[in-house]
Amino acid sequence: MRWSQLYTPTLREDPAEAEAASHRLLVRAGFIRQLAAGHYTLLPMAMRVRENVVRIIREEMQRIGGQEFLLPTMHPAEIWKRSGRYDSVDVMFKLTDRKGNEQVLGLTHEEVFATLGAELRSYRRLPQIWYQFQTKFRDEARPKAGLLRVREFTMKDSYSFDLDEAGLDASFEAHRAAYERVFARLGLPAIAVNASSGAMGGSASTEFMCPSEAGEDFVVRCPACGYAANVEKAGSRLDPVHDPDSTELAPFDTPGVRTIDDLARVHGVAADRQVKTLVYVLDGRLTLVLLRGDHALVEQKLADATGAARIRPAHDEEIAEALGARPGSLGGVGVTGLPVIADAALRGRRGMVTGANRDEVHLRGVDVERDIAPGRWADLREVAAGEPCGDCGSALEVVKCIEVGHIFKLGRRYAEAFGVTVLDAEGRAATPIMGSYGIGVERAIAAIVETHHDESGIVWPAAVAPFQVDIAALGDDPEVVEAADRLYRELAEGGVSVLLDDRDERPGIKFKDAELCGIPLRVTVSRRGLGEGTVEVTERSTGATERLAPGRVKGHVAASLSGS
């Protein structure tokens, strides 16, 4: 490809609205353009990167026996109602066609693949691994950060069908290994972490997280033993607490107290001796959620513990009607008729302080199990950096990350919903067990940029770069033009992806554009260099430059790319 023919509208300045490095650089380097919030056009350079990312994923999926499909993006609403997800997934795009039929735009394809699975019929056709690259749609409330949080994107999603749990274990581990190879080839330092399956359901959920300040997820990990989990799933040890042997419940006035900090500052009650009372609506039912005052709630843990599909904080008027007090004076003592779920860190605690369900009044001496008796205990709290690892006791660290992949065991939920059965070796009907596995293609591209960039622009790994080599021909001297063309042909014939910068531009512009666009190697052909019998070969990642005879360039490029 010649740069004079390539549509790459680079910008000299950063776009004002871009905060994440990947958003800023992909726009500035002419890879993407925004059509509307959360909807991006991929320009030719981005399409070349996307093609390389898809190729790598496809190769690894085929390596584990995956078979590629292409499913519709628009689905009849009936299949989503059949699975029970039509009303539980709040980011789904829903529409009605001209005949009045309800339709949805697919955000995942479990339902569609399960309908196809109904044709398996015999255990002899198992196991199966089916995958596709397809557009997904999610009605994100706050799309941002370029390709990192969008409303329309490409996902590689795959689904396994096995006869039993042992088969699912094998499919799951095959995908885990494939994903590790994919991310290594993409140049992404992805961490496999324990996670929640969320709205998809299932178990044994593993996310692949790429450390980045642009991320929206937090991973808790132990540098000593390797434990790692999404904050939505992570646990830790807590230091032992010494409570009084017996306590007497007593009210006391707390005028002006609205928060945990207020009670600590004005009345000297440390946050770790307070019971924080939150009121949530879980699938339409008001529920009290109790935590230690210095702990934060993880809503996904609450969802996982209760199985609730819809969760939201209660409104002030709902709280006042149910408990007779405003937030700041709420508690579980004496509450009847409402479910109460408490964080496990409160189990056995005595001598605590909580709201009395009377405005500006609190209770001392609370014995949680004696005075509240929660109906359910669960791990609900957010782990904090520095807490002891539950496995080895070392201090945990919390790392901001981008989720680049997710694998989980679906179980038989979808197979049962869609009547997927096979005959086993004894001729008996059996329901296959499924797994689900996803990689966001454009998000992976953005994560690569977040991981590989510097002050001059993108630094693409050679495996995914839009072009592996940029030949910068300086000036219009016939000898320079001829030498650049000859190198261009030699490299292209040798299987190298090469871009010839034949534009009538100053050398500085050519160099800056090549650096901005992140092409791994630049070959500079100039009249002065040719007069000395050399051309310059510069590595984008290090800036190292070598002067070589033109005849040595092909071998040098091959050696450099094979080692990158």
Number of domains in the coordinates? 3
* Sheet with most strands: 9 strands, mixed
CATH topology of the largest domain: BirA Bifunctional Protein, domain 2
Count of extended strands: 32
Description:
This protein folds into three domains: 3-234 and 398-450, Bira Bifunctional Protein, Domain 2 (BirA Bifunctional Protein, domain 2), CATH 3.30.930.10; 250-378, Alpha-Beta Complex (YbaK protein); 467-562, 3-Layer(aba) Sandwich (Rossmann fold). By secondary structure, it is α+β, with helices and mostly antiparallel strands. α1 packs across α11 and α2 (44-63) runs antiparallel to α5. α12 links the parallel β28 and β29 (498-501). It starts with 20 loop residues before the first helix and ends with a helix. The mean pLDDT is 94. The chain is globular, with a radius of gyration of 29 Å. Helix content is 27%, strand content 29%.
Provide the descriptors you would attach to this structure in a database record:
YbaK protein, globular, BirA Bifunctional Protein, domain 2, 5-stranded mixed beta sheet, about 30% strand, Rossmann fold, alpha+beta, about 575 residues
Question: Could you outline the blueprint of secondary structure elements for this entry?
Answer:
Layout: H1 21-28, E1 32-36, E2 39-42, H2 44-63, E3 67-68, E4 74-76, H3 77-83, E5 93-96, E6 102-105, H4 110-117, E7 121-122, E8 128-137, E9 152-162, H5 165-186, E10 191-195, E11 203-211, E12 217-221, E13 228-230, E14 250-253, H6 260-267, E15 275-282, E16 285-292, H7 299-306, E17 311-313, H8 316-323, E18 340-343, E19 352-358, E20 361-366, H9 368-372, E21 376-378, E22 397-411, H10 413-417, E23 422-423, E24 429-430, E25 433-440, H11 441-451, E26 453-454, E27 457-458, E28 469-473, H12 478-493, E29 498-501, H13 507-517, E30 521-525, H14 527-531, E31 535-539, E32 545-548, H15 553-562
Parallel strand pairs: 3-8, 7-23, 16-18, 18-21, 28-29, 28-30
Antiparallel strand pairs: 1-2, 4-6, 5-6, 8-9, 9-25, 10-11, 11-22, 12-13, 12-22, 14-20, 15-16, 15-17, 19-20, 22-25, 23-24, 26-27, 30-31, 31-32
Helix pairs in contact: 1-11, 2-5, 2-11
